[in-house]
Amino acid sequence: MKSSKHMHTGRKAAFPKTVSPMLATLVDKPVDEPGWLYEIKWDGYRAIARCNKNKVDLISRNNKSFNDKFYPVHDALQKLGIHAVLDGEIAVVRDDGVTNFGALQNWRSEADGDLVYYVFDLLWLNGYNLMELPLIERRKMLHDLLPAEGIIRESLNFETSATEFLAAAAKMGLEGIIAKRADSIYRPGDRARDWLKIKVHKRHEVVIGGYTKNEGSPKPFSSLLVGVYEKGKLKYIGKIGTGFNDKTQKEMMKQFKPLHAAKAPFSTAPNVNEPSRFRSNPPHAEAFWLKPVLVCEVSYAEMTADGVMRHPSFMGMREDKAAKDVHAEVALPAELALPAEKAVGPAIRLKPGKGERKSLLNPKEETQVKLVSGHELKLSHLSKLFWPKEGYSKRDLLNYYYQVAEYILPYLKDRPQSLNRFPNGIDGKSFYHKDVTATAPDWIKQFPYHTSEGEDKNFLVVEDEASILWMANMGAIEMNPWNSTIHKPDNPDWCIIDLDPTEKNTFEQVIQVAQMTKKVLDEIKVVGYPKTSGSTGIHIYIPLGAKYTYEECQLFGRLIATKVHAALPELTSIERMTQKRKGKIYVDFLQNRPKATLAAPYAVRPKPGATVSMPLHWEEVKKGLKMSQFTIGSALARIKAEGELFKPVLGKGVDISKALKQLK
């Protein structure tokens, strides 16, 4: 073993009990930009090695022990005698140097092939946490730590362009490549855009929900019936009929035996005898259903328009992944993985796929009548420019809200709204419209309120996408819901920390305060979810699950804001009065009060650029982030690529009393 020259770099920390591996984001093509390191994507099992000198734990992605299963790797790590935490991939290497996933899955002893543990990251070393150091520094220390040859090997970086490296990987028969930002920190458990994977062939994990047996076939089974989870339900995506031999099938049947079920686990049960264009008269097959707990890997040619794999082939079982975590993996447009300053440019527009909404309105008529959610909507003045400089019209706004309805609706549904109306676009006069008693159609739900003058009035309450479009047609560019619903009006679903800068502050300073807010939340073991305000600030939401009163919520927000202010007193203020803030960023916790409203996630803002309030990964909250990345023209592609990042905000909620015990 080489001597380490970097033993005392990093933050002093105890030996970690567990580490969730950082994950890579799939992109559709190579990113050829400076500042990236490239590695081979090994075709094996991800494993964290906790090496406490001669006591070693080799842990899978789903926290299972690999100590006995891959004993040669475990024994080799013990012999190293290092005090470190490593991240890498266990693989079986063929004679030509290429890893073979099928051979790894069938590995029982050295007779089945040569095991290698390819190590690509060093997370902790000799009493120091290295995860906050740049990757390039961690890699130097790793190089110094590992032996030059043997079963434990450094997974090398290659200095080349991503395009050339991917072409070389394809020639060698490799699965793909991994690109990592040289300056990236290690983010346990995050699927970060600082790490990207680009595949040579289409590969996917799938959940086995059943199998078929063809009439008269001597084989244990004829095909596997598989799916992926979508919104909590198992969606069928095809049957796999090739890639396994008799031995593999017999072993799989042993796994299937205790899992037989009476009903299909899929949201829609497949017709296993339906003819296809490739086989007009298939042999009669019988389907056998299984509890959906087993995961396997499949390669395939492409996905059809109705979401079924063409020419799938079985690659092997995946013991390292839990079935509930298997979702459709959609490749992110590579442009969205570029540094923020390069990502700004023409809007990225995706072609609608099966089930994906196209525009609601045609590009010419000034007035159109549409049936939405069972309600007739007359949508008018459609060519009126709401953003004259950018050329976005009222039609564009309505089309956007129609296409994004399924994503924004959970944050608006059953919540009273305050309409901020811009009937002549962002350059015209605007006004707030709260009472809709006389203006809303009969089908719009209303919620009563009593004014200080003794008048009875009604807020609009969103129930469906028709009510969203009715508001937008009234010129309500942004959607401003309450923090609570009409079912529990005194109990907010979330606590908000609103970072509100003055004209004297830069957005980089707002980012600095957001990062400090995350640090405070990490200290009290609370997860917050950031989004751009769509204007000049950042909003951080903490899920509460409607378990607390507004008073308790605001007190919790005050404590967090006070800690952030104490850490950054020269940059922040918690003063309510604007003149007392002295040009500092206001860490606003007073939004946590009854009837207060804030722009919803995915809401368009009446600002230059037609910006959108966009949920973010925490790793995106760093220098280079810009509001202009997220606009009415690019938001939908972003949402489809990244998924619904804000969904946990509507989840179970944090335990405030437990969090407060962490405060020092």
Please provide a written account of the structure.
With 664 residues, the chain is an alpha+beta fold. It folds into four domains: 149 residues, D-amino Acid Aminotransferase, Chain A, domain 1; 123 residues, Nucleic acid-binding proteins (OB fold (Dihydrolipoamide Acetyltransferase, E2P), Beta Barrel), CATH 2.40.50.140; 111 residues, DNA primase, PRIM domain; 127 residues, Alpha-Beta Plaits (2-Layer Sandwich), CATH 3.30.70. Helices cover 19% and strands 28% of the residues. It contains twelve helices and 34 strands. The strands form nine sheets. Strands 1, 4, 5, 6, 7, 8 and 9 form a seven-stranded mixed β-sheet that branches. The longest helix is centred in the C-terminal third of the chain and has 18 residues. The radius of gyration is 28 Å and the shape is globular.
Quick tags:
single chain, 664 residues, alpha+beta, D-amino Acid Aminotransferase, Chain A, domain 1, OB fold (Dihydrolipoamide Acetyltransferase, E2P), 4 domains, seven-stranded mixed beta sheet, 12 helices, 28% strand
At the first level of CATH, the class of the largest domain is Alpha Beta
**Beta-strand residue fraction:** 25-35%
- Here the CATH topology of the largest domain equals D-amino Acid Aminotransferase, Chain A, domain 1
The fourth-level CATH homologous superfamily of the largest domain is DNA ligase/mRNA capping enzyme
Number of domains: 4
The total strand number stands at 34
**Assigned CATH architecture of the largest domain:** 2-Layer Sandwich
Rounded to an integer in angstroms, the radius of gyration calculated over CA atoms is: 28 Å
Helix content: 10-25%
**Secondary structural class:** alpha+beta
Uncertain segments are 1-8, 339-355
Distance separating the two termini: 43 Å
- Overall mean pLDDT stands at 89
Count of helical stretches: 12
Overall, the morphology is: globular
